[in-house]
Amino acid sequence: MEHIVLTNGLKKSFKTQGKTVEAVRGVDLAVRRGEVFGFLGPNGAGKTTTLRMLTTLLTPDAGEATLAGCDLLKHPQRLRERIGYVSQAGGSDRGMSAWENLVLQGRLFGMNRHNAAAQAKALILAFDLEAIVDRKAATYSGGQRRRLDVALGMMHRPQLLFLDEPTTGLDPQNRARLWEEVRRLRDSGVTIFLTTHYLDEADALADRIAIMDQGKIEAEGSPRELKKQIAGDVVLLGLSADGAHNEKALELFSTQPYVREASYEQGHLRLYVHEGEATLPEILRLLDHAQIGLKTISLSQPTLDDVFLRQTGRSLQEA
Ligand SMILES: Nc1ncnc2c1ncn2[C@@H]1O[C@H](COP(=O)(O)OP(=O)(O)OP(=O)(O)O)[C@@H](O)[C@H]1O
Predict the structure, then answer these.
(1) Which of 5, 38, 187, 189 is the most buried (most CB within 10 A)?
(2) How many domains is the chain built from?
């Protein structure tokens, strides 16, 4: 298996107002060539700091990395030519049109006028920007501007494209459209390294994901593999009981043979069970018997949030 990104023990701390923040505390990542790699984690987990190190914008305190065949520390310049980076803010100049932005970007990467124009034309078609190509970027909708940002990141034909939260702020339609474009880029051979807050996005788009929390990688694998670790179903019980009852309910269910794991948080008892449908009547019977009131009950397949919850004891949505 060829890896396009391999990191070993990457670390970065910041000192502010006499305090040290360990933003990244020894990160090992392996991204395969040609995949969409989703990088997930709550606010402040260290995703952007990792991304900024990998894209040469920040020097690591320790560790090493190889990207697209280049050593991060020894050959940053060569590495920059092989990767693209689309930051959260995007890279377009709003006073210029899509066409001007793209051609300028190509020229900045050392392309001659002819090559820059040819690549700009191809990207305008690929990202469906024909209708607005001569208008100033300041007049674009959020979705149009994002498409231009990604096109700009692709101008110098990178092998590896970093997208930092590409769909934040987009409406569902534009999100779906960008997902399609990311898939098409992947199908054309580009490796995509994507950070996101959205679990459904990582689930739908990423071939493999890494979940980061508090500066460390907590889990890595395909969404399917990760969810398989939590075999079975998740039953979520909304209890109307008070604190003492909740303790009792947790204790009660923890000892049932069909419950693999039970946890309690914010009024909800979460049970990981082998076969949800078959165990529901038994769960209801037990609650009734113990005289514990029930407000809601739901049965679902495990999500990436359940994976995160299991690793960290917190919900990614809430974190
Ligand atoms: N330049 C800096 N100076 C001081 N602290 C920093 C700096 N950059 C990041 N940090 C801190 O490092 C930690 C990790 O931040 P980082 O931006 O990498 O997280 P993130 O996972 O990208 O979060 P988000 O999803 O909110 O963008 C946070 O505690 C943050 O406050």
Answers:
(1) 38
(2) 2
Q: pLDDT digits over 266-315, tens only?
A: 788 989 888 888 899 999 999 899 888 888 999 988 888 888 887 887 87
Residues framing ligand 1 (Cβ under 6 A): 14, 16, 21, 23, 41, 43-49
Query: Domain check: are 187 and 282 in the same one?
Result: no
Q: Is residue 315 part of a domain?
A: no
Calculate the alpha carbon distances from 319 to 42, 182, 247, 269 in Å: 6, 27, 23, 18
**Full residue range of the structural domain in which residue 289 is found:** 231-301
In a domain, 40, yes or no: yes
What are the angstrom distances between the C-alpha of 155 and each of 1, 194, 209? 28, 18, 26
Given a cut of 80, whether residue 256 has pLDDT beyond it is yes
pTM comes to 0.84
Shared-domain flag, residues 166 and 190: yes
Q: What is the DSSP string of 78-118?
A: HHHHHEEEE-TT-S--TTSBHHHHHHHHHHHTT--HHHHHH
Task: Please state the atom number of ligand 1 nearest to the C-alpha of residue 24.
Answer: 14
In the prediction, which pLDDT does 241 show?
60
| pLDDT mean over 66-92 | 94
For a pocket test of ligand 1, which of 19, 21, 55 has the largest count of ligand atoms closer than 8 A to its C-beta? 21
Helix, strand, or coil (residue 180): helix
Instruction: Give the pLDDT of residue 243.
Output: 66
Q: How far is the CA of 198 from the centre of ligand 1 (A)?
A: 18
Q: What is the CATH number of the domain that holds 204?
A: 3.40.50.300
Shared domain check, 273 and 157: no
**Ligand 1 nearest atom to the CA of residue 15, by list position:** 4
CA 28 to ligand 1 centroid distance, Å: 18
pLDDT for residue 318 is more than 90: no
